[in-house]
Queue: 4 jobs
Job 1
Amino acid sequence: MLAINLKLDCPVIYVLSDSIGETGELVVRAAASQFDGGKLDVRRIPYLNTAAEVDEALQEAAGCQAAVAYTLVRPDLKHFLEGKASKLGLVCVDIMGPILGAIASVTNLPPRLEPGLIRKMDEAYFNKVEAVEFAVKYDDGKQPWGLTKADLVIVGVSRTSKTPLCMYLAHKGIKAANVPLVPEVNPPQELFSLPPHKVVGLTIDPSLLNEIRKERLKTLGLSASVEYANPERITGELEYAEAVMRKIGCLIINVTNKAVEETAAKVLEYYRKGVE
């Protein structure tokens, strides 16, 4: 077993962990900073999975008369460490135990006692942030060359909730781009190079879309009589969009009277089947 940050000729603290051990090392170094001029050799031994590995680490610590700090959350390893350290006469400090107990007492919830959960949480958080940034960057057909980087591409005519759907998916960690389908503008060629299962088309009832567009025009201070809200124009747009979707061979979802969450649930189910 190799301890991290091995040095010589100064007092030693071993940091033992069933995860990466960064938390324990940070606490030890923060405490060490309170001692003027005192050099300290911090040796971190991460990913301890068995009692034999803990025993080996403790024997090594005993061999150099070190103190031991630990962030073990697995009860079996923690129990073994405490018993073995006592037999070896090692000074031991449980870094995680007291705060776990305090949090349990105020929340009335039991700790999960799983190593490495904070790293998993951090990874999920940063994946979500990255997906949100992706959705913004590739919203509304911007930078079509980025479509090949997407987990999913949402297509449809204006006001079929493409952007809200992409943002919802982003909060699930899925990188989603969207492309508006307009008869006068050729879809980007990148769209047709994607596997059909990576594209989802949205369609909607023409009369409902007409009402949605009228309301949108009102909020912009524009007349509801413009071409954007013309029923014939809307029907033509939808027919054109569905023709493009059929050419791609993608899933088509009718979003009429559906909340974004409901549409997203169908898209997520479809997506997860595709990545299995």
Job 2
Amino acid sequence: MNTIERKIISTPNAPKAIGPYAQAVQYGDLLFVSGMIPLDPKTGELITGNFEAEVVRALENIKAIVEAGGMSLKNVLKTTVFLNDLGNFAKFNEIYSGYFGEILPARETVQAAQLPRDVSIEISVICGK
């Protein structure tokens, strides 16, 4: 019999789901955060036209959800990053490293032909206590 509780995590400090999914699901000591795009949670508008600002917004959305789940970015075990152009990989890494410092999670970064709402970046994470 499974005694681990599955809990939906939600915060107004990150964008509402734009489909049939949760911002995050906590399962025991693990937190699975859905893909976040550069959507401003206050206005509901996309951040566009400046790749660096888009990356920051997506990472701030991730951070808000992780914190709502009672964790911090230090708890991130793995990230999955989708870019619409791998030519932005170096710019992404520069900003990303500022968020994770020396506690680096496992990661894959792939180029995707098209992302939701035609954004340039989407990031999801898995955290653990």
Job 3
Amino acid sequence: MHLNENVSEIAKKIKLLILDIDGVLTDGGMYFDDKGTELKKFNSLDGHGIKMLLDSGIEVAVITARSTQSVSYRLDGLGVKHYYHGITDKSIALAELTEKLSIDVNESAYVGDDVIDLPAMSKIALPIAVANAHSFVKENSLLVTEKNGGEGAVREVCDMLLKAQHKYEDLMQSYLK
């Protein structure tokens, strides 16, 4: 991920990272067992990136159009407290979330993959598309990840934010102790 000076300045001020689920935290595939239970595959690197952000004082939230128990289970395990599901107009959830947390949209980043994410992405400081996002989403983002959704794209964003805020090196060194 290559940051220009303007994007780097924005990343330094981010206090909230908002994520979509399908196509961002997962590969976008929909898997069903014989009983119709929906299953999702999450990337463990993405999960640890989320934990590192939370431990570093950056809030993480999820806004998704779908509702599944597997997502609730995963987010609970990661410590994500702000989960908006079944949301078709994500800009409404964004307004509610930023007001609740007293975090300005100019201090927020959003990672999306499809046009349903754009109403929220267009209102925040740092809209980010995953590598395999819809072309219109990429065109309307300040950054595009090198990795696909569900394959480490979220970790890439987490690392970028931590580096921009000069928290990355100390955090990495803490794993060597």
Job 4
Amino acid sequence: MSQMKREPITAAGAQRLREELERLKRVDRNRIKKAIQEARAHGDLKENAEYHAAKEEQGFIEGRISTLEALLSRAEVIDVSKLNVGDKVVFGATVELETEDGDQTVTYQIVGDAEADIEQGLISVSSPIARALIGKEVDDEVKVHAPGGVQTYYILSIKYE
């Protein structure tokens, strides 16, 4: 009997996934069920684009529900505000970085794979930049081996919220 691999996720990330799952089950499922019923009422299903679009969306919704249920069932929720790690970057840290030339600052939070969203500043713990940051401290130089080449950053601050 194999052990299920636990995946780290922040408490906030787990809450976002639970809320999405709840919305999909309570709101989107009912909406799409009604859309399918209405499309069926229009007659011939073979040439009914509304029916086929609704069925396709239903498949997407059910797939996403399954994915979220699986993610949450194996999630190990970590409350980053309760971590006592001193001044080192670990899972859950929000890190402010400055580019080597000092032109730009960026802020990232290191999160689980399931909650990563670069547009929200949430980077996966398994990403090259997160792996380079883990264990570092404020003022450390960090070299990130990215697809575009090596990028150098300096850590300006580390927070756990």
